[in-house]
């Protein structure tokens, strides 16, 4: 396994090169090559082969970047993307067919269809926490819908960025699918160009920058952002199972997961028992000293390590709390007695610190959730169907699980995305295809009859029209 700390620095791309690249992609798109569904499926198969070929390199790169365990790199990145690719290849012919819809009587005689048309050029900007999956999964949707694309990996995971760039350049011509590596500057240059779709995954702060840039060209945008996703635990939940599923979802990728439970709201009578079970579970998963565990990732860079170290000062540490700046290790940590005024409750934690807060009842928990910006995910643990219904009906959030964490992402039939501050638009499976497609609505009118009712002079036809509308 490569653990070299040599940082890959990509060659800086300048404005004329980016303009040339965009122009070449425009010309290629105009050739109509990507309109052919067989072409798209072939490209998806090529992508699948390339991923399989580079699998070990990807694992090594993600380990180099922040010690992502190979099991997690497979389950949540490479294997995850492979499932999405296979699902899309299998279903694409059906998805891409024009769809006939019911006709309005007013248009008689006619037929109406929806045609799925690629937007054209897509720009896909990825974050560092799932540096492969969150860049390639949207790319699958862009290819499936027949777009050209430029993808921009995060500069904070340089080794993974380098492998992605190599893999994409070996597999596709640049005028079809291209990679631009680097940080803020190349992203800003890209955002100055006119794209037909922008798909951004990252922070709410940068999401606003992207949305502003897109407005300049009236480019449609999907924003996959973050936020504080709660796990709510009712007193009738299976607490052992709840502890296991919360610990798994929280400390996977060392808490650097957009849909990780950010904090726990637990009914006060079971709080101590849940804390006890969570602590037990952390030891079961990562051993007495998680620093020695092969299954526990590191914090991505010094800036995030320092930010999280400051947050560690909030509340009372009930488990964990240890850290090491050299290896950027922060132990899985459980925090009690935090207040809503503490910095840890004011920002997305995005690390292995789990505050636990007691509530009296579900109504109070729902009130807390709805008082804050709408989270990307919400997890509710309870064995009571009425309570489950209450939370689902009244709490506002992007998506989530009952009695689990994170697993809603695995089902390609569930659109994944945020709402409000946690994002706009959703993808995965068919939703990705639809997201990157313009739905062109076309009415084909019969010519053998042409009723005169709609044409001027209208004379006294209004009552007749009103009758007709009332009858419909
Ligand atoms: P980020 O917003 O800092 O960076 C994302 C991308 O934007 C990177 O490619 C980066 O190079 C680029 N970028 C950064 N600053 C920029 C600027 N000023 N102008 C233009 N481009 C800029 O996010 P991150 O730190 O990479 O990722 C963490 C955030 O992403 C968290 O908030 C997390 O919740 C969110 N996230 C959301 C999802 C989701 O699916 N909703 C998934 C993963 C992460």
From TrEMBL:
Alphabetical list of InterPro entries matching this protein: Ald_DH/histidinol_DH, Ald_DH_C, Ald_DH_CS_CYS, Ald_DH_CS_GLU, Ald_DH_N, Aldehyde_DH_dom, Aldehyde_DH_NAD(P)
Record's keyword annotation contains Oxidoreductase: yes
Annotated signal sequence range: none
Protein name (Swiss-Prot/TrEMBL): Aldehyde dehydrogenase
Cited Gene3D superfamilies: Aldehyde Dehydrogenase, Chain A, domain 1, Aldehyde Dehydrogenase, Chain A, domain 2
Keywords for the protein's UniProt record, in alphabetical order: Oxidoreductase
Domain of life per record: Bacteria
Active-site residues, as the UniProt record annotates them: 224
NADP keyword on record: no
Similarity annotation: Belongs to the aldehyde dehydrogenase family.
Residue ranges constituting the Aldehyde dehydrogenase domain according to the UniProt record: 12-442
Pfam name, any one: Aldedh
Coiled-coil stretches: none
């Amino acid at each position: 396994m490569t653990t070299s700390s040599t940082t890959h620095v990509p060659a800086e791309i300048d404005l004329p090169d980016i303009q040339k690249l965009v122009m070449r992609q425009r010309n290629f798109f105009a050739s109509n090559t990507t309109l052919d569904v067989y072409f798209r499926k072939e490209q998806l198969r090529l992508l699948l082969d390339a991923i399989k070929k580079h699998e070990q390199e990807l694992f090594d790169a993600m380990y180099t970047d922040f010690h992502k365990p190979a099991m997690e790199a497979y389950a949540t990145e490479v294997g995850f993307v492979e499932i999405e690719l296979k699902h899309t290849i299998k279903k694409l012919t059906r998805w891409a067919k024009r769809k006939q819809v019911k006709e309005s009587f007013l248009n008689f005689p006619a037929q109406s269809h929806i045609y799925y048309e690629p937007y054209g050029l897509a720009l896909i900007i990825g974050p560092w926490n799932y540096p492969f999956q969150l860049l390639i999964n949207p790319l699958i949707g862009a290819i499936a819908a027949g777009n050209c694309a430029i993808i921009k990996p995060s500069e904070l995971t340089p080794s993974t960025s380098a492998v992605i760039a190599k893999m994409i350049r070996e597999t596709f011509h640049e005028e079809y699918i291209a990679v631009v590596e680097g940080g803020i500057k190349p992203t800003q240059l890209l955002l100055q160009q006119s794209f037909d779709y922008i798909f951004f995954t990252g922070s709410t702060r940068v999401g606003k920058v992207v949305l502003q840039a897109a407005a300049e060209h009236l480019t449609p945008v999907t924003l996959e952002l973050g936020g504080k996703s709660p796990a709510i635990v009712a007193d009738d939940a299976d607490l052992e199972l709840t502890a296991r599923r919360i610990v798994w979802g929280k400390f996977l990728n060392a808490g650097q997961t957009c849909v990780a439970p950010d904090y726990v709201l637990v009914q006060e009578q079971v709080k101590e028992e849940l804390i006890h079970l969570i602590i037990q579970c952390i030891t079961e998963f990562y051993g007495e000293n998680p620093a020695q565990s092969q299954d526990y990732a590191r914090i991505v860079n010094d800036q995030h390590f320092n930010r999280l170290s400051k947050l560690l000062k909030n509340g009372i540490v009930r488990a964990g709390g240890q850290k090491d700046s050299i290896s950027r290790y922060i132990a899985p940590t459980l925090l009690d007695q935090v207040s809503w005024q503490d910095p840890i409750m004011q920002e997305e934690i995005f690390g292995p610190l789990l505050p636990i807060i007691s509530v009296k009842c579900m109504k109070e928990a729902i009130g807390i959730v709805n008082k804050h910006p709408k989270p990307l995910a919400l997890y509710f643990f309870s064995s009571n169907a009425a309570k489950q219904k209450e939370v689902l009906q009244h709490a506002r959030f992007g998506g989530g699980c009952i009695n689990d964490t994170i697993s809603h992402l695995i089902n390609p039939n569930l659109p994944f995305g945020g709402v409000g501050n946690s994002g706009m638009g959703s993808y995965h499976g068919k939703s990705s295809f639809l997201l990157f497609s313009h739905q062109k609505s076309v009415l084909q009118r019969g010519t053998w009859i042409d009723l005169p009712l709609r044409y001027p002079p209208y004379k006294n036809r209004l009552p007749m029209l009103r009758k007709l509308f009332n009858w419909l």
